[in-house]
Every structure is written in C-alpha cells, then in structure tokens.
Design brief:
The chain has twelve helices and twelve strands. It has a six-stranded parallel sheet with strand order 3-2-1-4-5-6, with helices on both faces. The chain is an alpha/beta fold. The chain is globular. 38% of the residues lie in helices and 18% in strands. Bound molecules: guanosine-5'-monophosphate and manganese (II) ion.
Length: 334
C-alpha cells in the first residue's frame, strides 16, 4: 500500500466527514461486499457514510449487513444527487474508469470533494486525488482489508465487516478458483474466519439461490446455445432477448454462465453475448495466460482483468458473433 497516500488519507479521515462510497454498474459480490465493509468501518469511525450504486444489485447479496442502506441511483436519482452534493469525501470501490458509474460520473466529476480510488483492475484512469490500485490482488475487498489494517484499525474488523469482505473475496475468485494464487488472500481469509463468520452458510446464501427458471436457462445455454471451437480452444454462448423472456429472466440469472465452457478441458477462453435493447453485452473469461482484458478493450470498448473482462458491442447479435468468430484465429497474438 502507498504509505504516503495512507498517511494523508489517515489525516483526512481523522475528523468526522460526510463520505460517499461509489461502486460500478451491475454491482457484483466484490463491489457490494467491499462497499458495505467500508461503510460499516467508517461508521464505526464516526463518519456519516452513504453508498450509491448506478443500478440495483442481485438478490443473493441482499442478506448482507446494512445492504438496505444502499441508494440505487436508477431508483432514487434525487436522493443520490442530494447525497453527492453534501459529500466531502468520495471513495470509489471496485472500478477504475468513469464510464463504469454511468450517469453518476458527471456530478461526481463536478464535485469538489476529495476523491479516493481503491481498486484491483488494470490501468486506472486518473480521476482521483488518491489512487490505491493493486491489480495483483484477488479483489477490492482484499485491498479494503489491507486499507483498514494500514490505518491501524484491524481491531475494528467485526463479524459484519468480515462477512462482507469474505463475500467479496469468495465471489471475485469464483470460490477460490481464479485470481487466488497469492498467499496474502488466504492470510486475510484466515483472519476473517477468526471473526467467527460461517463460510459454509455464506456459500449457500450466495450460490444455492437459483430459481427453477434460472436453472433451466443454464441447461438451455449448455445444451442448445454453446458453440465450441476446439481448434481455437474457445467457446461462446449467446442469448437473445426472446430467449431470456422464454425463461422469465430476472436480473442476475445470467451471472456465472460464461464460466461453464471453461470446464471443458481444451477450452481456454469463453464468451457470453447477451442481447440488450440497443447493444450486445459481452463477458469474456479465460484460463491461464490468455489476456481477455486486451480483447475486451481492443474490440469491445470494455476492459477488466487478465482472466475476466467485459464490454459492449453496438452491432447486432449476429454481427457481434461474426466479429468474435473472425478474431478467434488471432487470439494467441492479441
Ligand atoms: P463481467 O463479465 O462479469 O460483467 O465483467 C468481468 C470483469 O470485467 C469485471 O471485473 C468488470 O469489472 C470488468 N468489466 C466488465 N465490463 C466492463 C466494461 O465495460 N469496461 C471495463 N473497463 N471493465 C469492464
Ligand atoms: Mn472486483
């Protein structure tokens, strides 16, 4: 951790402030887990803290402590704007490019508040006063643990904070199956376990929550919609709006589907294409050295990490898929 930044941040946080935590669109377990842990910690430090997300977060995270305090900009834009106007410090968690907070970017940029960025994605944009960016970590939640520890407040990490950070680390590593080759991750998880969290129960709350429709959608994807290109060690799944409707699609139902083709021995890259109103949303995952962040950035106006990235295509589903298929022979050179 950058010690000079931490000394300054410690000074700034020494008097109670109005603090707003911002996280990215379609918040995942790490976005919500790290934000709630930070909120609980800073509230213990006598700050007034809010969390604003661009849109709603999945139901399987709604049991997390204090999650009912999250302000969703899409549902309550006036409340969000009021909070932003009263903010003295922003803490940006789990994103590093402003397009990830969508409409919140403008009021955020206009604000004179101090801006702190804490994140683990590659290539941070330069919009914060303090940028704590560590791409060699499992998750933003892991960095939040280090942040609290660096501020000398490890003793304030209670069971609630530990649950939130555990969810962030567990979900961002696919239950400890990727981005998890650093011993520090397990040191932190071990310390979280000492707060008497129930990791088995948390796993059930986060993962064993499928509706019947969601399970059948997954089956449909794997049996009908997965295309495998063995010669390129790649596969993709595509879903049109009509197909989503057929399975009574709810927010979060397509979460994780992109990972399944990677369970095939010789598939090293998997993509998921989802048709939206005016674009196609793309998720890409890989195993090993293939850098899908570069593919998302170069071809699909997105980004992310080496093994997990996302982006968008303004083309139709068919055109997007054709563009992707044409890229396959070059993948190893990207
Ligand atoms: P997902 O496929 O789950 O939506 O995203 C995978 C990873 O890529 C996440 O870590 C997410 O933060 C990042 N990501 C997804 N979409 C975008 C995007 O449009 N731009 C950037 N810069 N990163 C993205
Ligand atoms: Mn993350």
């Amino acid at each position: 951790m950058n010690e000079i930044a931490i000394v300054d941040i410690k000074k700034i946080l020494s008097i109670s402030k109005n603090i707003t935590i911002l996280t990215h669109i379609n918040p995942d377990g790490d976005a919500i887990g790290s934000s709630l842990a930070m909120l609980i910690y800073l509230t213990l430090k006598k700050h007034t803290v809010s969390i604003i997300t661009p849109n709603d977060f999945p139901d399987f995270l709604k049991w997390l402590p204090k999650s009912n305090q999250i302000v969703v900009n899409k549902n309550s834009p006036e409340t969000a704007l009021k909070i932003i106007s009263e903010t003295e410090i922003f803490i940006c968690l789990d994103f590093n490019s402003l397009n990830r907070i969508e409409k919140l970017a403008e009021p955020f940029l206009q604000s004179k508040a101090i801006k702190i960025l804490i994140d683990h994605h590659i290539d941070p944009e330069n919009f914060a006063d303090f940028t704590l960016s560590f791409s060699n970590t499992s998750s933003t939640s892991e960095i939040v643990y280090d942040f609290i520890e660096f501020l000398g407040d490890e003793n304030l990490i209670n069971k609630e904070i530990a649950e939130c950070l555990y969810v962030g680390i567990a979900t961002d590593t696919g239950s400890f199956s990727y981005s998890c080759n650093h011993s520090r991750t397990y040191d932190i998880v071990s310390k979280l376990m000492l707060k008497e969290i129930n990791a088995e129960h948390i796993h059930r709350l986060v993962y064993d929550t499928y509706s019947e429709d969601r399970m059948r959608l997954l089956g449909f994807c794997l049996s009908e919609k997965m295309k495998v290109f063995s010669q390129y060690e790649a596969a993709f799944i595509s879903l049109t709006k009509a197909e989503l409707k057929r399975f009574n699609h709810q927010t979060g139902d397509t979460e994780g589907i992109v990972n399944y083709p990677l369970s095939i021995g010789n598939v090293k890259m998997a993509a998921l294409f989802i048709e939206k109103d005016d674009h196609v949303r793309i998720s890409i995952r890989s195993k090993g050295d293939l850098n899908v962040n570069k593919i998302a950035k170069k071809y699909f106006n997105g980004g992310g990490h080496k093994n997990a990235a996302g982006g968008n295509s303004p083309l139709s589903m068919e055109e997007t898929i054709n563009k992707f298929i044409k890229l396959l022979p070059e993948l190893n050179f990207i």
